[in-house]
Amino acid sequence: MTSTKLKPVDVVVVGVGVAGSIICKELATTGLRVVGLERGRMVDPNKDFVMPYAHDEFRNDNRSDLIQNLSRETVTFRNAMNETALPMRDIGSFRLGECVGGAGVLWGGLTWRFLPWDFETHSRTVERYGKQHMPADCSNQDWGLTYEELEPYYDQFEHIYGVSGKAGNLEGQLQPGGNPFEGPRSREYPNPPPPTTYAGHLFGKAAQSLGYSPFSTPTSGNTQLYKNPYKQVLGQCMRGGFCSSYSCAKGAKGSPLTAVVPSLKEHPNFELRPLSNVIKINLDSDGKRATGVNYIDANGQEFEQPADLVILTSYAFNNTRLLLLSGIGKPYDPISNSGVVGKNYSYQAVGSVKLFFEDKVFNGFMGGGGLCTAIDDFNGDNFDHSGLGFIGGGYLVVNSRGAAPIHSHPVPSGTPGWGSEWKKKVAHYYDRSFSISSHGGCQSYRTNYLDLDPTYKDANGLPLIRMTFDWRQPDHKMSAHITKKAAEIAQAMGPSKMSQHPVTGQYNITPYQVNHNTGGAIMGADPSASVVNKYLQTWDVPNVFVIGASAFPQNSANAPTGTVGALACWTADIIKEVYLKRPQSLM
Amino acid sequence: MSESDLFQGHAYLFFKPHEVRFVDAAVARIIPADDLGPGAKEAGVTRFIDRQLASPWGTSSRQYRLGPWQPGSPRQGNQSPLIPQEIYRYGIQDMDRYCLKEKGKSFEFLSADVQEALLKAMESGQIELNTISCKKFFSLLHKNTIEGFFSDPMHGGNHNKIGWRLIGFPGVAGSAYPDWLGRYNEPYRVEPVSILDIEQGKVSLDAEGNPKHIFINPQ
Q: Rg of chain A over CA atoms, in angstroms?
């Protein structure tokens, strides 16, 4: 196909979601000519998500048009290298965003920081337990970036999204009511923590009685009207539910659409181009320098957008795929254990405990994104792992997201799936039940990885990304361990019935689990073991940066959005302060 | 059952009359009318499914549909080229044929007990159908029944908010939730409000644009 060559710009940003919107904003303030290319459509929350339609569960959740249209592009999947990967034909385990704002429009709002341990998983494990404690074939590595270095940028991101929460550790001083296990923070959250729901209250009380430290999780469901540093005003959460998979009709959820994108209008040097699907990063003849990107618009026309600086800020799958399609970095080969692009794909292992009561009602339809009570006692390395056979862990959480009626039919184990008995139990327990989620992380393994599929193509005839992934024994052990801890807390609440559901068996792409796919373009200190350096700059092509959860060398238990946002702030800063003055390799 | 509980007659976009009878009978077993109230048939779930089948979803418009089509492990998800319209059309045809042969009557004319047993057999994959997997057909029928029973009545099911009344879901959220959140173990039970109600002007809105909820058991 011939492409139309456009006027060169200084910076092209590929994917305008959580990371991309911040990069666009921060670089637009320098006066550089910046173009943001986004494959999805423009969404104006004031028009697209208005009451009462914003509370239509069926249309927004079951039939969403903001989730990737798989008829044009999907991923292929297999559990192991000796299987044939097949396309994910329907949405299941995770939901990929496809609109300006990306998955950041559909997120729930939980705005964690990662634990300091998450950044140094490998070295801290070896230091505390010895090399033999690392699971066999585990390919974890340190980030090459520490929590302390990223802290000011977490703070910056939290102020952009107006995060509501209570600090647990202010400059090393533990704070009552906050998470005592979090890394030291330079200051409080910009907004106060949300109220505690009845379910969260019962969980907190029971956890405390067992000696744990419950707290309200930080959330971008704002507790009060808030004006952010980009002069955007975010609304107050009305606790009506309909957050995750939805855009908030009250403008109360921090997201690219509420916190960042509207402020881009004030920069005449910035242009947002929706419906522009980037298919390739172009390199000069010796492959050491990017010259821009090619993309296909809504009419199927191909354009070449020349640029001095190319920044990939799309989802983990697409960041990795674009590098592979463009020949940037050596593709990872698990057999020879060489190459880097596609390495260390990871996910999260989420189990649960379901609780049923006879004498309590929860008004579970009230709630909001990130409205959670949690404990962090079994996350990361916050507990002794000697003899446990796994590393890492997860947080235990009661997430009062709002019990939407199509999706919330909690019934005790043994209840038939339909018929009169099922109806009776659903009617009785819909509001007399809640769950504790045992929200585990996932380590990286040599044969969990991404590459280009040899058979299946997208609508443009380009190979799909292929995911090879399965749970490992340590993942099962971790999930069983923390789910058992959740069950002990559940027991202390005195439910009439309860059941435990740790992650078991093989990974299945069908049931919804979590939207936290990571890795593929990982960061690190060693060019032979990572795609990007600690500044998210590719080792091989210094004018290409790759930002997103693709950079995580293994996955934390915590939701990634806070860290993705912080990495965007971190990279924007280094580009502005260092790279633009001396546009070459930063390491 | 009051007058408004009765689902009135409806003209169908996709289903043929005999298909309506089959789906009516099947959804009435999946969520039956009983002493707790009306079931899926009374809630207009057949109309909901009919509308869905006539929508882009009925032809799998957002599904990855390029080949090769090959069976994989169950963990790799759906790998069948059949679209929902075909699953219903062939599934009903196949079940009719099976019921006539084995039971002497079409599905909809069999007793509730026999229908229930047949649906259970479909669910566990014990019926050999001509064209499609009975398990796949049941699974779609089950999923759509739940969706139709509990989604906003604007989509054609959940007539008179039967599904929401059953579980105590208030529908479109009210403005009092932030205050109510701290009232532990006090049930918030109101006359449910649908988007359809609001658009039909049946419910008044407050200054926030949220519906004014009417409590059904005074607090």
A: 23
User: CA-nearest residue of chain B to A455?
Assistant: B68
The 10s digit of each residue's pLDDT in B102-146 is: 999 999 999 999 999 999 999 999 999 999 999 999 999 999 999
B residues 130-149 lying closer than 8 A (beta carbon) to A: 142, 145-147
For A380-394, letters b (16+ CB in 10 Å) and e give bbbeebeeeebbbbb
Taking CB atoms and an 8 Å limit, are A406 and B151 in contact across chains?
yes
Confidence of residue A74 (pLDDT cuts 50, 70, 90): very high
Domains parsed from chain A with CATH numbers: 1-117+218-346+510-587 (3.50.50.60)
Alpha-carbon torsion B146, B149, B153, B156, what sign?
A: positive
Match 């943001």 to its residue by tokens: A36
Spatial separation of the C-alpha atoms in residues A105 and A259, rounded to whole Å: 11
Return the domain boundaries, chain B. Answer: 3-62+81-166, 169-219
CA distance B114 to chain A (A): 13
pLDDT the model gives residue B1 = 47
- Distance of alpha carbon B126 from alpha carbon B135, whole angstroms: 8
Q: Could you give the CA distance from residue A327 to residue A343 in angstroms, rounded to a whole number?
A: 15
Q: Is B63 on the interface with A (CB under 8 A)?
A: yes
Q: How would residue A229 be classed by pLDDT, with cut points 50, 70 and 90?
A: very high
Q: Count the Cβ atoms, other than its own, within 10 Å of residue A374.
A: 30
Q: Closest chain B residue to A422 measured between Cα atoms?
A: B31
pLDDT bin (cut points 50, 70, 90) of residue B5 is: low
Interface with A, mutate which of B45, B65, B76 (most A CBs under 10 A): B76
**Residues of chain B with C-beta less than 8 angstroms from the C-beta of A71:** 60-65
Number of A–B residue contacts, CB under 8 Å:
173
Which residues of A, range 216-245, sit inside 8 Å of B by Cβ?
236-242
Q: How far is CA A475 from CA A13, A172, A182, A471, A487, in A?
A: 36, 31, 23, 6, 18
Per-residue pLDDT, B10: 82
The 8-class DSSP code of residue B108 comes to G
**For B157, which residue in chain A has the nearest alpha carbon?**
A58
- Nearest CA to A140 among A519, A567, A395? A519
> B195 vs A53: CB contact, 8 Å cut-off?
yes
Cβ–Cβ below 8 Å for A57 and B151: yes
Q: How confident is the model at residue A145 (pLDDT cuts 50, 70, 90)?
A: very high
Burial level of B112, CB count in 10 A (0-12/13-18/19+)?
A: exposed
Q: What is the pLDDT of residues A85-97, one digit of tens each?
A: 999 999 999 999 9
Tokens 């976009």 belong to B13
Known catalytic residues of A are 516
